[in-house]
């Protein structure tokens, strides 16, 4: 992902790595925070955002462009799971 992306917000979160990881996985984390975490320098934090079931598709699409192969794969998998579940429910 590039920091020039239209979704990037310059203001950083001043949290510990552990706090960011916890928030990235928490299903109650607001979308605005997930968006900031999606551009975190930590590959692990970005990957955890991709795992979060409440991460919007637009953020997953951005994560699929990440420089990290792990983050890209997780975002792709998460999007595939959503498509699969939607087909099951129809």
Any key phrases for this structure?
globular, single chain, 90 residues, Leucine-rich Repeat Variant, mainly alpha
Kindly state the number of beta strands: 0
How far apart the termini lie comes to: 33 Å
Helix content: 55-70%
- Report the CATH architecture: Alpha Horseshoe
CATH class descriptor: Mainly Alpha
Number of helical stretches of at least 4 residues:
5
Largest sheet: none
Order of helices and strands: HHHHH
If you compute it from the alpha carbons, what radius of gyration comes out, rounded to the nearest whole angstrom? 13 Å
Uncertain segments are: 1-10
Question: Could you tell me the mean pLDDT?
Answer: 86
Note the overall shape: globular
Question: Strand share of the residues?
Answer: under 5%
Plain-language structure description:
With 90 residues, the chain is mainly α. It has a single domain, classed as Leucine-rich Repeat Variant, CATH 1.25.10. Helix content is 59%, strand content 0%. The chain has 5 helices and no strands. The N terminus is likely disordered.
Blueprint (SSEs and pairs):
Layout lengths: L16 H9 L5 H7 L5 H9 L5 H7 L5 H21 L1
Nutshell version of this structure?
The protein is mainly alpha-helical. It has helices at residues 17-25, 31-37, 43-51, 57-63, 69-89. 59% of the residues lie in helices and 0% in strands.
């Amino acid at each position: 992902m590039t920091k020039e992306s239209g979704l990037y917000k310059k203001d950083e979160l001043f949290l510990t790595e552990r706090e960011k990881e916890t928030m990235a996985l928490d299903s109650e984390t607001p979308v605005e925070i997930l968006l900031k975490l999606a551009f975190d320098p930590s590959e692990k934090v970005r990957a955890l955002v991709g795992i979060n079931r409440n991460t919007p598709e637009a953020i997953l699409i951005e994560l699929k462009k990440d420089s990290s192969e792990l983050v890209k794969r997780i975002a792709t998998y998460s999007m595939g799971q959503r498509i699969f579940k939607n087909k099951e429910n129809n």
